[in-house]
Amino acid sequence: MPHPRTPFARSIPRPRGTATALGYRMPAEWEPMARVWLTPPYNPETWPGCLGKAQAQFRRFMAELRKSVTIVTTQSIKAPTNDSWIRDYGPIFVVQNRQGENKKSRVQSPESRVGKKTKALPAKAAHDFRFNGWGGKYEVRDKDDVVPQHIARRVGVPLWIHDLVLEGGSIDVNGVGSVMTTAQCLLNKNRNPRLSRSQIINELHRALGTRHAIWLPGGIIGDDTDGHIDDIARFVNPTTVVGIRAPKGHQDYEMLNRNWKALQTARDQDGKKLTVIPLPVPDPILYDFPPDRFGPGGVNPVPASYANFLIANGSVLVPIFGQKTDDTALRTLAEAMPKHRVVGIRAEHLVVGLGSFHCLSQQEPV
Predict the structure, then answer these.
(1) 98 HSE (CA, 13 A, CB side)
(2) Which strand (E) or helix (H) includes residue 345?
(3) How far apart are CA 1 and CA 12, in angstroms?
(4) How open is the CA angle 174-305-42, to the nearest 5 degrees?
(5) Is the per-residue pLDDT at 116 higher than 60?
(6) Is there a domain that residue 184 lies in?
(7) Is 49 helix (H, G, I), strand (E, B) or coil?
(8) What is the number of structural domains in the chain?
(9) pTM of the predicted structure, to 2 decimals
(10) Which residues neighbour 95 within 8 Å (Cβ) at sequence distance 6 or greater?
(11) Which residues constitute the domain of residue 314?
């Protein structure tokens, strides 16, 4: 299905050629950020019975985030949305390689599409991938799907508009050539059923400036995204990954053990083994969901994960859940990122919406 366009989409400059061919790459999250884009929680259907408490926890997150980076919301630029999960529907920004700008790179201005002129590529651009509501599980997310076009117009960057379905939470990069993802999500037939594994990853490499993929099997119970990487494993530097591990008897033990084995044998873009650090899991958190238009409700697990942290200009904002494993998770991340300020923020109400701080944010590099 073709990606929808806003009425103003034609006025947004479009690059001529792929991002990789033009010298762009997706920077790692620990690289400098200009701002972080947010859509604060507002949908009572997403946080049934606890929206106010979820909003209070999000305000605490925003207060800590402001200490490190500028915050901009979709509401402030009057970009309509269906919900708050901007990690998955927001723009994925790329920057020119620091090794030097490709002097042959050019971007099409609206005029250049009819052959009038071209201009040199800017240092930053963005991607707009299709967002189909995590495989069509909910209503059509037509407003969310075009949010990157609103942001690109506001920021003034060129934009690739793709027909490929991809959510930002399904990928993580180390900034120097590797992208990490899960087979459960990217190869799911509810995303890009006509594309093979190699076709999908080649599209990613062309968009992100990567050349190597690390595949993990899948995600945690309660995650409605079909296994997003940002709930299970994250790069914390170019050669180190933190991966969540569960004890035997935990509901996620089997899948997380498979992921851990995959990480133990994984290599980076240069063929070198990764340093892999275990991150604990909280005890399962259950929530009694009321029936709604999407299902009968009932007591179900939510995807509580310490891996859903956001790195922003020297800070690491980590969801915690009032459990004994909170301190272990914070200590592990502080040791893994010793030059960062690691802050735990309660998120047991936010995660009822089936996501946390990383899912609710999208960074824009400098």
Answers:
(1) 8
(2) strand 341-346
(3) 21
(4) 100
(5) no
(6) yes
(7) coil
(8) 1
(9) 0.94
(10) 24, 25, 27, 123, 124, 125, 365, 366
(11) 9-365
Q: Give the distance, in angstroms, between the CA of residue 4 and the centroid of all CA atoms in the same chain.
A: 21
Which DSSP category does 29 fall into? Answer: T
Helix (H, G, I), strand (E, B) or coil at 307: coil
Structural domain includes residue 2: no
Six token digits for residue 144: 């969310």
The Cα 33–Cα 24 span in angstroms is 16
Nearest to 133 by CA among 252, 221, 1, 7: 1
Do residues 151 and 77 lie in contact, with contact meaning Cβ atoms separated by under 8 Å?
yes
CATH number, domain with residue 138: 3.75.10.10
Q: Tell me which amino acid residue 338 is.
A: P
Q: Could you read off the pLDDT of 129-178 as tens digits, one per residue?
A: 999 999 999 999 999 999 999 999 999 999 999 999 999 999 999 999 99
User: How far apart are alpha carbons 38 and 132 in whole angstroms?
Assistant: 19
How is residue 8 written in tokens?
């103003």
C-alpha 210/C-alpha 238 separation (Å) is: 13
Transcribe 273-333 into DSSP letters: BPEEEEE--PPPEEEEEPPBTTB--EEEEE---TT--EEETTEEEEEE-SSTHHHHHHHHH
**Number of Cβ atoms within 10 Å of the Cβ of 127:** 23
Query: Residues with catalytic annotation?
Result: 359
| Phi, psi values for residue 2, rounded to 5° | -65, 150
Q: Is residue 3 part of a domain?
A: no
Rounded-to-integer distance, Cα 190 and Cα 238, Å: 31
Is residue 1 assigned to a domain?
no
Structure tokens at 335: 């040791």
